[in-house]
Design goal:
181 residues; alpha+beta; 4-stranded antiparallel β-sheet
Length: 181
């Protein structure tokens, strides 16, 4: 049996741009040979089984979305085991009292020390963040609307592809992945 992987699409269904209906995405993935693809919410979260490496799976999904939907979408992939480690680490769990304001940015590579310094420079005194490998955990107690830290994490200035999910979504994706095991 192939490993369970979590496919995270960047910037899907935000407002009127990059619209993809999740049933159509599941159908496209099914046609591509992923017969167990499941989606969560409308924001581009897919759990499926694949023997492909993370990089190859991300590339295949990105090409499939370009072909089927005409959209250039960045994709970041983690295995079920990697997401389980993200949840187990939970470095801000003691301060992050609202899971909707506790974000994890999943990166396709590690960020530079210079980028970490940029994050430190824009973070509000009340905000917290922890960089651990290819994830950035961030606590935004006042929300993300006016957060310069969030704007930098959500933008393209990190030097790597990144996509963020709130803690509720991260833990739900792990639950879905566990159902696929």
């Amino acid at each position: 049996m192939s490993p369970v992987q979590i496919v995270l699409l960047r910037g899907i269904n935000l407002g009127a741009r990059n619209r993809i209906a999740m049933p159509k995405l599941r159908d496209a993935l099914d046609e591509a040979g992923f017969d167990d693809a499941r989606t969560y919410l409308q924001s581009g979260n897919v759990v499926l089984s694949s023997g492909l490496s993370a990089a190859k799976l991300a590339d295949k999904c990105s090409r499939l979305i370009k072909k089927q939907f005409g959209l250039d979408i960045d994709v970041v992939v983690r295995t079920r085991a990697q997401v389980a480690k993200v949840v187990a680490l939970d470095p801000l769990g003691e301060v992050a009292s609202n899971p909707k304001r506790y974000q994890v940015s999943f990166l396709d590579g590690k960020i530079s020390r210079e980028t970490v310094k940029k994050l430190e420079a824009v973070a509000l005194e009340s905000e917290r963040f922890v960089v651990h490998g290819r994830e950035v955990y961030a606590w935004h107690p006042a929300g993300v609307a006016r957060s310069k830290l969030w704007a930098l994490l959500a933008g393209r200035g990190l030097g790597v592809t990144a996509t963020s999910r709130n803690w509720t979504t991260v833990t739900k994706l792990l639950e879905l992945a566990d159902e696929n095991v």
